[in-house]
Design goal:
With 804 residues, the protein is mostly helical. Helix content is 67%, strand content 4%.
């Protein structure tokens, strides 16, 4: 066992006066405040009474003893003030008169006022017994010119045993008697202090002992280092203050926890730190078990979930797991916070988080009530090792643990837990792998079923994850990557990318990619930019991470940034700049993007042609299509347009198929090829681009029924009327050219977009062909439309010849 003296840690009264004073280095400001109050108070009248509040382990008992010892050591003060130190647990004081009897016994034992307890026993045991006991005590004090200060630890337990009548009586004494003063301590919130209807409402002065500050933690650690003659502590305090702050946060600034962890893990000369921890956990079990047993059932359930979670959790999570209503959970959380069992964590909004306030209690709960093996059971140990040990010391401790394994003297649970904790620190992969392999061998030799809980090394998990990713087994890749204990930048990147690619959890994708970015991983910067760009539509963040990647010469990020400026941020000059930057690096998509930019934004077909041809040399299919479009629409070179469309068609480009089919239709040639390409394009993508083309070519091929069915795809789409009204025109005209007058009329009558108004001249052209059936309808046409309608009728007749 380490050099710690457990009885003295858990019961400071077992320390000598000199030891306690020597080791008292924190809480000094509050000590000075209270002692000066005692020193200056002549106690001519009733004085202010104190109850010091704080969770267990915060130094309340030590502070009470330090105050009492200072009175005893003060030659002037001790002549008029007698400090009475009650034991930490006073189960015998269940009635108020027993408080006076116990005080009398103390005075007798310490030779202050002898015979007082004996005199009390002579009094009649009736309703006035308590009053006469107190009067006897008070009179004796007055006679001797002495004052009493009662130092009562766990005063809440004592007061809870008193009746309401005794509370009123005690308040009467405290407010009227100048002979007695109380300085108590409590680890729970005293409800009677906040209840207006109770005798002790707002009665006591109640200083709060919070977790140690950063400076107090340094002071305590330096004292511990001095006690153990450890220069390492001074070195860390001086050169690595961040680690002190991390330790303070892990322990919640609880003095007892800091001392325990210091002694077990820092002063670990024997290598038996985990075994020592087990003994300490055993020693606190009665204390913590009592804490849990005293809670109502719902509070026990809530504490169980929070403790096993270790990290802070939300009300919603607690309600979901416990199956309690959120309102009930909130009410119980308020009570638990009042008792200092949990603490809330601010989040910047109304949704607070909650965790166990005393981290050592949480450690005890995990170790004693968690599953046989749960990673959370070593989380605190991992955090502590990472806080306190630099790389060199981690490796030293690992080697020490390996030697203990080889000696065969370790307990199996100790072997498993310390191995798993060390494996979660930033050890070199080779050392971590060796540690896990040797622990596996050790547990097998011991025939321990704990070997089934031993994790794989990060080296193995990483290899399996990359193999899964290459094989597109993404679920398995995620499983292996999540199991890696200490991920490097590549693994954070791969995990983030896999989450993004599968869209299983985009927030996790963001989280892991951000961690990879912290490791200066350029590919992660690019992927994160892509995630913000395409999924979250947060274009400012996309720009930020694309730029970070560009600074690392990431070529695809240059292209992504150019595309972002062009399509989302409307900065065409910057788009051109980054396209050119990417083109210099021979990024093919950037060549196409720059060609498109010149063609449609800068209206520079020559430059567009240049970059399309550059991309074409690299077999870029989009460039083939772009050249086809350019030659068809800008240069009117239909032969070249056909050539490049055909190149793209061979690569399966649906838009090229559609455009080539439409080109053949407009040129009234290659009807069978036109139908083949239109049908393939429509099969690949059914939209307002492919549907009209396919429908027109079906009409050309006299497949009327199929043509009308396909036409329904775009005739029912409002966007068709806004972008391509000419296609609606052509379908209606072709139907009439094919003498499908009634089908055309059905479309006019049943379509919800008021076609008769939108396409009025075409409607009257239809009525021309149907005037035998609807003579009056054709006559409704205004004279101003006559010439236009006649032109449409002539066009229909020409279409009938062209597409017979």
């Amino acid at each position: 066992m380490s050099r710690i003296d457990l009885p003295k840690i858990y019961n400071p009264a077992t320390q000598t006066r000199e030891e306690l004073i020597e080791n008292f280095v924190v809480r000094t400001a509050l000590f000075q405040d209270i002692f000066q109050d005692i020193e200056k108070s002549e106690m001519k009248y009733a004085e202010q009474h104190y109850i010091i509040q704080g969770v267990r382990g915060q130094g309340k008992t030590t502070l009470l003893l330090r105050l009492a010892y200072e009175i005893q050591n003060d030659s002037a003060l001790c002549k008029r003030v007698i400090p009475v130190i009650f034991n930490e647990e006073q189960y015998n004081i269940s009635r108020l008169f027993k408080l006076w009897e116990t005080t009398a016994e103390y005075l007798d034992e310490h030779g202050e006022i002898q015979g007082l307890y004996h005199e009390m026993q002579k009094l009649d045991d009736d309703e006035d017994f308590e009053r006469r006991c107190f009067d006897l005590l008070e009179n004796e004090l007055k006679k001797r010119g002495k004052k009493l200060i009662l130092f009562i630890d766990n005063i809440d337990d004592m007061l809870a045993r008193f009746s309401a009548r005794e509370h009123r009586r005690l308040r009467e004494i405290f407010t009227e008697s100048a002979e007695i003063r109380v300085i108590g301590a409590s680890s729970v919130t005293l409800e009677f202090h906040y209840d207006y209807g109770k005798p002790f409402y707002q009665f006591f002065k109640m200083p709060q002992l919070r977790g140690l500050s950063a400076d107090e933690t340094k002071t305590l650690l330096l004292k511990l280092g001095e006690r153990y003659n450890s220069s390492r502590v001074e070195e860390i305090v001086r050169n690595q203050p961040g680690r002190i702050e991390s330790l303070r946060r892990l322990t919640g600034g609880v003095i007892r926890t800091i001392i325990l962890l210091f002694d077990i893990f820092i002063d670990d000369t024997s290598g038996n730190a985990f075994a020592d921890l087990g003994k300490i956990l055993d020693s606190v079990t009665p204390l913590y078990k009592h804490r849990m047993d005293s809670l109502p059932a719902q509070q026990q359930e809530i504490v169980n979930f929070i403790a096993l979670s270790w990290d802070a959790v939300s009300t919603k999570e607690i309600a979901s797991r416990t199956k309690l209503q959120s309102k009930a959970v909130s009410a119980q959380l308020k009570q638990l916070e009042k008792y200092h069992i949990i603490e809330k964590v601010e989040t910047g909004n109304k949704n607070l988080l909650y965790r166990i306030a005393e981290r050592f209690f949480n450690i005890w709960y995990l170790m004693r009530h968690g599953r046989k093996w749960d990673e959370k059971r070593v989380r605190f140990l991992v955090e502590f090792l990472q806080i306190w040990c630099d790389q060199k010391e981690l490796e030293y401790r690992t080697q020490q643990h390996l030697r203990m394994l080889q000696s065969g003297k370790l307990g199996t649970e100790h072997a498993l837990f310390l191995t798993e904790a060390l494996a979660r620190t930033p050890l070199k992969r080779e050392m971590q792998h060796q540690l896990l392999e040797e622990t596996k061998t050790y547990l097998e030799k011991k025939h321990s079923d704990l070997k089934t809980y031993l994790s794989k090394s990060d080296y193995e998990l990483s290899q399996e994850a990359w193999a899964d990713y290459e094989a597109k087994n993404y679920d398995s890749a995620i499983k292996h990557l999540e199991s890696i204990k200490v991920k490097d930048g590549h693994e954070e990147y791969l995990l983030g990318t896999t989450y993004a690619k599968t869209k299983r959890d985009l927030l996790k994708a963001e989280d892991h990619l951000l961690k990879a970015v912290e490791n200066e991983f350029p590919e992660a910067m690019f992927r994160l930019g892509l995630l913000y760009d395409e999924e979250f539509k947060d274009f400012k963040k996309a720009e930020k991470f694309y730029l970070m990647a560009v600074e690392k010469e990431h070529v695809n990020a240059m292209y992504g940034l150019a595309w972002l400026y062009q399509n989302e941020l409307n900065d065409l000059k910057k788009a051109e700049k980054f396209y050119l930057m990417a083109v210099e690096k021979e990024q093919v998509d950037a060549m196409y993007g720059l060609a498109w930019l010149n063609q449609f934004e800068f209206k520079n077909p020559k430059k567009a042609e240049k970059y399309y041809l550059m991309a074409l040399e690299n077999e870029n299919t989009e460039a083939m299509f772009g050249l086809g479009w350019l030659y068809e629409n800008e240069y009117k070179n239909l032969k070249k347009a056909e050539k490049f469309y055909l190149m793209a068609v061979e690569k399966g480009h649906a838009s090229a198929m559609n455009n080539l089919a439409l080109l053949y239709f407009q040129e009234k040639k290659s009807r069978e090829k036109a139908l083949e390409y239109a049908q393939k394009a429509f099969s690949n993508v059914k939209n307002i681009y492919t549907s009209p083309t396919y429908s027109m070519i079906l009409l050309w091929n006299d497949d009327i029924e199929q043509a009308v069915s396909v036409a329904d795809n775009f005739l029912a789409d409002k966007e068709s009327y806004e972008k391509f009204p000419q296609n609606i025109n052509m379908i209606l005209l072709l139907l009439m050219a094919k003498k499908q007058y009634h089908l055309a009329l059905k479309i006019f009558n049943e379509n919800p977009f008021q076609l008769k108004d939108r396409f009025k001249p075409i409607y009257y052209a239809l009525m021309y062909f149907l005037q035998d059936e609807y003579p009056n309808e054709y006559r409704k046409m205004g004279a101003e439309l006559k010439e236009t309608v006649d032109e449409i009728i002539a066009e229909i007749k020409q279409l009938a010849k062209d597409y017979e």
